[in-house]
Amino acid sequence: MSTQRILLIIGGGIAAYKSLELIRELSRRGIQCRCILTKGGAEFITPLSVSALSGEKCFTDLFSLDDEAEMGHIQLSRSADLVVVCPATADLLAKAAGGHANDLASTTLMATDAPVMMVPAMNVRMWEHAATRRNVETLRGDGVTVMEPDEGAMACGEYGPGRLPDVPIIADAVEAELARIAGPKPLEGRHVLVTAGPTREPLDPVRYLSNHSSGKQGYAIAGALAALGARVSLVSGPVGITPPRGVDHIPVETAQQMLQACEDALPADVFISVAAVADWRPAISSDKKLKLKDEGKTLPALTLAENPDILATLSHKTSDRPGLVIGFAAETHDLEALARAKMQRKGCDWIVANDVSGDVMGGAENEVALVTGSGLETWPRMDKTEVARRLAERIAVALNDPDDRQVAAE
Ligand code: CTP
């Protein structure tokens, strides 16, 4: 999915400083800002701070030869998925409603072919003035999205509607607008269950058996599925990374808890078992800390019990079996043959065969091959987020064409 881009027009008002926070928040959400700072806006913040935060040149002047040589104002107005005016002053609203084009901001608003969203901020009397009411109505009639300002104490000492909404609320609205423009996503309405990370099998309250899984690949897959519109339940063992935005994160510790959480999350359209589930747990887990030499006894022997196989259990369910079940196979050799055997044994539909002979565990990259009922797709070594994106897109294709579930792509 390509990066989303907005053109942010920063008007003149005390709220202009919040546009700097907005640039940061949007970039955190993967949305890039190219900015125009009006003359009024430049009285409150500088082009330097805007370009430092956006990482791009900040445009200010309609008649600047430099600016025009770099990017003409018509091209600038068409270079984004969405134009956002924040803060939108009474003057900017009036200019846009009246069709004026006498500076870079107003010319851009006239010339753009992208949807426009305005985030007004002004004194309460100005917001309630009949002229502003008229302008807002005209703009909405023209298809412009005009956010309602917040109510509260204003910088000028008055109280009422006119304050700029909080930055995360504006960022949510921008995201929603971009989603509306992009149209329906291929996994919308689908529920995908993903397991990730290691499990921890306690010996006593302070010791456990576990493994080195970082959870990176599973978390990246959960994020990529959510980005394609899926509702994602991410059942995860203990890891040191933050769950992706928009994902339902269900933390667990042991394999038994992981299985229970998965059963509870069903029904699902797809199950992807990425977790490095510990195959065994200590047969007895003491609720008191074990002592090295308890009353002169010799070292305790460690007896293990087998953990449930979560992938096999969900694959073999007679009711509520997810339509597409995908396992991972971490192998150091004979990748395809071992993956196929594992697919048979566990009863899943696809296996992502993972070559762990190198530095994959905990690293940023992964080298995988996708094994389906009748074919093999080898993917080059790539970043774990890229593996995730490809897998999510592959799943979207398969769900929209059920015959494809058994068939490898070209
Ligand atoms: N898996 C699982 N529950 C387990 C063990 C594994 O759900 N108790 C899942 C993993 O999430 C993965 C797949 O089974 O999707 C294969 O895991 P892997 O560790 O490669 O296979 P094992 O079954 O442990 O087989 P082996 O270690 O013999 O290769």
Structure description:
- This protein is α/β, with parallel strands linked by helices.
- It has two domains: 4-182, Flavin prenyltransferase-like (Rossmann fold); 191-285 and 300-400, CoaB-like (Rossmann fold, 3-Layer(aba) Sandwich).
- The protein is built from 14 helices and 22 strands.
- The strands form six sheets. It has an eight-stranded mixed sheet with strand order 13-12-9-14-17-18-20-21, with helices on both faces. A six-stranded parallel sheet has the order 3-2-1-4-5-6, with helices on both faces.
- α1 crosses α9 (167-182).
- The model is unreliable at 406-410 (pLDDT under 50).
CATH class term of the largest domain: Alpha Beta
Biggest beta sheet summary: 8 strands, mixed
**How would you write the strand order of the largest sheet?**
13-12-9-14-17-18-20-21
Counting DSSP E segments of at least 2 residues, the number of strands comes to 22
In CATH terms, what is the architecture of the largest domain?
3-Layer(aba) Sandwich
Mean pLDDT over the residues: 91
- Roughly how many Å is the radius of gyration? 28 Å
Report the structural category: alpha/beta
Shape label: elongated
How many domains? 2
Measured between the Cα atoms of the first and last residue, the distance is 21 Å
Give the key terms.
410 residues, alpha/beta, Rossmann fold, eight-stranded mixed sheet, disordered C terminus, binds cytidine-5'-triphosphate
Task: Give the helix/strand layout.
Elements: E1 4-10, H1 16-28, E2 31-37, H2 47-54, E3 58-59, H3 65-70, H4 73-77, E4 82-88, H5 90-98, H6 104-111, E5 116-120, H7 124-128, H8 130-141, E6 145-146, E7 150-153, E8 159-163, H9 167-182, E9 191-196, E10 201-204, E11 207-209, H10 216-227, E12 231-236, E13 248-251, H11 255-265, E14 270-273, E15 280-282, E16 304-306, H12 310-315, E17 324-331, H13 335-346, E18 350-355, E19 365-366, E20 368-371, E21 376-378, E22 382-383, H14 384-400
Parallel strand pairs: 1-2, 1-4, 2-3, 4-5, 5-6, 9-12, 9-14, 12-13, 14-17, 17-18
Antiparallel strand pairs: 7-8, 10-11, 15-16, 18-20, 19-22, 20-21
This protein binds cytidine-5'-triphosphate.
Residues 255, 273, 275, 277, 279, 307, 309-311, 327-330, 342 line the site of cytidine-5'-triphosphate (CTP).
